[in-house]
Batch of 2 targets.
Target 1
Amino acid sequence: MKFSSEFRDPAKAEALLKAIERTLDGMPRRPDRPIHVMEVCGGHTHSVFRYGLHRLIDPRIEFVHGPGCPVCVLPMGRVDDCVKIAERPEVIFTTFGDAMRVPGSRKSLTQAKADGADIRMVYSPLDALDLARANPSREVVFFGLGFETTMPSTALTILEAERAGIKNFSMLCQHITIIPTLRALLAEEDNQIDGFIGPGHVSMVIGIRGYDFIAELYGKPLVVAGFEPLDILQALLMVLRQLKDGDAHIDNQYARVVPEAGNTVALDAMAKVFEPRPVTDWRGLGNIAQSGAQIRTAYEAFDAEKKFALLAADVPDPQVVKCGEVVKGRMKPTQCPAFGKECTPQNPIGALMVSSEGACAAYAQYAAPRLRTGRAVEVADA
Amino acid sequence: MPKRLPVRGETVTLAHGSGGRAMRALIDSVFLDAFADTAVDEKDDAALVDFDSSGGDRLVFTTDAFVIDPIVFPGGDLGKLAVCGTVNDLAVAGARPAALSAAFIIEAGFPVADLTRLAKSMAQAATAADVKIVTGDTKVVDRGAADKVFITTSGIGVLPKGRDFGAHKVASGDKIIVSDAIGAHGAAVMAARGDLKLQTELCSDCKPLSGLVEALIAVAPSLRLLRDATRGGVATVLCEFALAAKLGIRIHEDSLVVSDPVRGIAEILGLDPLYLANEGVFVAVVASADAALCCQTLRALPGGAGAAVIGEVVDDYPGEVVLVSPFGGERLVDMLDGEQLPRIC
């Protein structure tokens, strides 16, 4: 399969790993800790674990798993909103698959479906719009979840609903934006992040200039990267070379997909339909100003919050899990007191355990504690 | 032969489940007609099956219930699945399938023509597996009380004397063999549900495995363990093997045979082919010395073209399965929790 095999070439991976090692050899070693490189995006976290990159890279570097998984930062109160709407008898509630299992304070969407709510998984918001066309007597609600990656498609769906005069379709908007969150992370004084591997799909939409403040204000490098193992290793090398040279700028490893200015057609559609929400709640991170989107008044007929008169409930995160500390890079998943005990992939409490892109689920799934200590190293050498 | 009653109407109704004339007409025209070549032409509630135990052969008995949405998918349908599923459970126990039963729970309103198609496809699969459907039952339930048709099949197979495999025989150094390319059934059914709107060339691997298993046993007396990789995929079977044998299993990602269409849909949806269901693929553990001949034998047979050695049994990490990526990175292969959900981005 041509479209991916060339980005998984073992010989090239080995060459990159060697180059990473050589670069590190030319740098003074930090006495206190390894170099922390945050991969912002959940897709990167998933690839790191799926291909075992965290075990292949030099121990002088450590990946810190960032907040870029929209499912992981979905707060309980918002899941409650989804359930509340989905349980109305006239509603067909539609969502991307991976939001189904996220625990709410009462129940997850999977549980609500088992209890009789009409909840359907879709692969695109346009599928939800088709459902609305096919079921004129029902109210079809789409759960618009995601970063700028999914925003263009939901914006275009709302524009299409308006053009076609479809009245029984609305969207519960849970779009979030990555830049304000990176700002909030970096503003914390004790953050221990030395450089960033920047999100690929988000940048495909927004371009790369929005990250400039990371280099200019905080003096840290960021390299936008693709999701294949070679992409990630190459981006890591690019970050390290900047650190070695005492340089900090925004670079683009994923130029085959990410244009510097982003996608203007997508950005125009988003600007037409969405506006910044004053405050958005992130699971694990709390409220962050201007970090989410809401539907503009001009399109409020398609806004499920208005249609169903929702009052956003603020539900605190469960105390036992430390998702926030993990997302901020201060704690490894295994250092959370609930990891593998109360909070497991079978019974996730924290959102990082729910999605396969969540750092905790990745740890639990691909690197059980037994494997991460001792003998496994021999296997790698064999 | 008694005169068969014609079925009236185009859809199954509650009357067809009432035990009276309508039911007899349905059984006559749908099931007895389709199973004429494979089943005994009797409508008694029990069938006689001959069995000679004097040589030390034993009976193997299994049952399985089948529900699937959609009931017709590329490469098969619910009927074929219901026969292959039970035949394969017998085959991987080392038994030669001898007789099947089939029980139908039908939702009122289901088209008779579709039921006939399912029955014909069951008959075809039974013929392919060289097994007879010898008895059955039909129930009709109200609309909404079932989803179209549910089929339960039970099967009896004969286990020849001396065939004895199990986890106790597995030893470090043994090889893991998979009988064909993986993940095709799970991927095909997902695509056939229609909400993906993807044009694909996916085709389910649904097929009886009894022939392949007999061929394998003939060349590999060292066969240690055998299981068909249905729900939960190859990954789940490997985890079960490792737990049962109390040894580790190491597999190599570049040895896994995955067709391009399956790989494509898995990439798009963020699914792992190792966890996708198969309905015509088995996983076997054999002695290292026999592995090459096993693969060669399977590859020469229909349904075994993708046979490959994918890994080995190791002393390290007992009870766990580790996958080695093409550049040496490794990860744990764990059992699936719940179903695989497509990822958002």
Target 2
Amino acid sequence: MSSNVGADHVRQLPAGADAASPLLEISGLRVSFTLSDGRRLTAVDGINLSVAPSEAVGLAGESGSGKSTVVGAIMGLLAPNGRIDAGSIRYRGLNLVAKGAPLRRTRWREIAVVFQGSLVALNPVIKVRDQVAEAIELRLGEPAEVAQEKAKHLLHDVGIPEKRINAYPHQLSGGQRQRAMLAVALSCSPAVLIGDEPTTALDVIVQAQILELLDRMRQEYGLGLILITHDLAVIADMCDRVAIMYAGRIVESGSVKEIFSTPRHPYTQALLGAAPDARAGRRTIKVLEGHPPDLSALPPGCHFAPRCPLADARCREEDPPTIEYADRVTLACHRYSLGDGKPPTPIDAPYPTLELGKR
Amino acid sequence: MSAGASVTLSTRIRKRVSGGNRIALLLLRRWDARIAIVILSLLTLSGIAPEALVGPLQTATTATAEALLPPSSTHLFGTDDLGRDLLNLTVHGARISLVVGALSAAITLVIGGGIGMIAGYRGGRVDSLLMRFADTFLILPTFVLALILAPILRELIGDQTEIFGIRTTLLTIVAVIGFTSWSSTARIVRSQTLSLRERTFVERARLVGLSPMRIIARHIFPNIRTVLVANGIVVIAGSILTESTLSFIGLGDPFQPSWGTILGNAQSAAAPSLGAWWFIAAPGCAILVTVVACTIIGNAIDELLDRDVRVRR
Amino acid sequence: MKGRRWLLGRLGGAIATILMVLLLNFVLFRLMPGSPDRALARNPRVSAEAMQAARVRWGLDKPIFPDQLIAYVGATLKGDFGYSLKYGGREVTSVIGEKIGPTLLIVGLGEIIALAAGIALGAWTGWRRGRFGDRAGTLGALILYSMPYFWLGMLLITLFATTLGWLPTSGISTPGGPGGIEGAIDLLRHAALPIATIALGLIGQYAILLRSSVAESLREGYVLTARAKGLRDERILRGHILPNALLPTVTLAALNAGFVIGGALTVEIVFSWPGLGLLTQEALQSRDYPVLQGVFLLLSVSVVLANLLADLLYSRLDPRVRHGAAR
């Protein structure tokens, strides 16, 4: 018997939420930070993202693209020098950005996070089981013994062996810790689960196990899953839709199938072409030169222009508009325009290439 | 080749100019450090030339006033049980307490710094042995050790010696404090040395074939100077506290009364029971203010060093 | 097992240190102007036979090294610390034994109060790190930490005993005073200021240490997780941060246990509290070296034991040390 409350459970939504509204809808979100010398840094610059129940959406980008800031914004846990400048984050219609939103009520019980670095995210001096039980006891109001039992079941469910049920975090292996972190995240049966680089620092085999576990939980609980990672292979494996993020903006989004087979935005093309693909037999890789921009000193125009082989004068002056050419399929690049409603023809961005195996 | 050499040269010069002086400048930006520095400067001034401020030290025979007078316009801090002006005593006490504090701190820094550098640089068995030795000193109650060592040292040094204008009795206190408080300094210096040992310029010196002593002196020591200063300030504060305790008990010199000795006199004269608060307040506040000022500066330097290390990395 | 070997190692270290202390004690006191031989001779109350017996026991007629040393160590381990000069030839052990009770009373209670209050203050300021409450609290702790214990005691007497007259100025009891429950209350009234002095002197250390532990813990990842879980601030502090932040403080408390007895010395002098402190001062003034030696030994050993206790405590409390990492 699974310990979850699953898809059949009649969920008690927080006041103001509406079961008929979309699960999670972020629109026009802008987050900025004030640096110690007074400058402002816009980490997230007007993004739209949505998740439906049982759907897995990937948020891909390099470090510094603003991905993790999105997590902070959703949970209402930005650093003291950060703030949400514009936009809305609607959970079942309830705007979490608005004043007086029941943030604490929503945390964990509706939206939960599996953080990166489980050794750091778990309290080292408290048993893992107690960390799971804590949420059940204090957030769901269950009596201590019941919470302990449920915690035990949950840990079993995610694959922690019996003899490690009462262990401390440092006594578990990396993979086991991540599973424990997952159990902690699922303890209050959330509707949305956000994974912030959940498999980074794990070896490939363990990574596959964790992803499989995540997928199973998604199905069992009917979770809306947001997977934040720089690893495109993970997104290709797990997600239905993907949003590609660069320097605080979403440059392209759509179904994984379409985007990964026919990338249109030059950045997406670089990301996909940057890794050698043994299976596809590809032996050349695209080289993306330069590095992500300093978000506190952005030049005008498209954020990607300095590194883009297709960039022209307009790219360096004007921000490209985000065009939506199908349901939840977007693209932000001057080179592409909404033509006659059909998906625009992909333009191959001429990156320098590297032949593998040749000097 | 010459271009490379000039780069190395300029880097070396920059390294020498930065470090200590930069910390000093950054220190002055903090308001609490500024106040502390002002206070310590005033105290040091009193310490250097007390006679210029309040005249010669009053003794039992030269006391001019009645005993145990509360503060007034003629006697700002009141008088003690022998009729001596407490302002006079406190200012002269500054010299004694500060010199004793500084001298013991100097001994502590030399011993602690030396042992710390050797232990950190050599490593291995030398390190373990030295650290266990240091631990023993950490464990011994400084205070009771002082009580015991004092008469012994007095026998050794003789009764009439004077160094820096400090007589034997107090010199024994200086020696005792200095020889017993070096453990934590040694530990701090040792860990700094350990991290310095791995830096490239030390590697290079080793490869060139310089002897360990040379390396320690020319390369390691200049880089721990700031740490020593920060630690030294805190050590001075601790020495002043320990000295005041030892003097309070009676190990001090009645002819060279430090703040602690004055408090000891207050205790013998039953000042608390008599309500002679001024007798107690003046020297005590002096100790308090000095120690707080030293601690603030020491902590501030520590924080600045911390930030420095993090930025450099 | 790993744990057992470590324990034996620590015990071995402690014993080694105690032996070093004994050695130091031996050397120092043989160097001192009042050597045991002379001390015995000067003591009019010790009978001739006892003197001769002691000389033999301590090996005073044999060479210093190694015979006297071994004799000394042997005698010390048997509890023979010599005879007090001042207290009429009584054994040092009995003299010290009678004075240790009052010291333990004020030191023990003082430590407990300081620990409780220091932890509360430290947690409160650590949580509000950077804000006004933190600055004020830290400054207060710094001031308390920077004043000599005895000065604090003298001030307290002047204020509470002399000026306000609420509490007695010194001593452990009113002479010719009542017994029974009233006697106990009398004792407490006399003990109040000494205990307060020790407690106030110690609070600063604990508060400052706990504050920095809490401030550090606030930056740890598990605090973010706890916040994301939607737990209340008070619960995060109590249930997550304190279990981590208390570890170094507990260690400090155990370490202090050894030193505080030494620090209480001056407090006892100020309050004429008949404990080890007063004993030490009198011994010093009358050059009663056997007693001084005994006190020194006692204090050193208690510090070594306190260190050992601190290590053991830490290893039991921190699960990372208690159970090694699993692979």
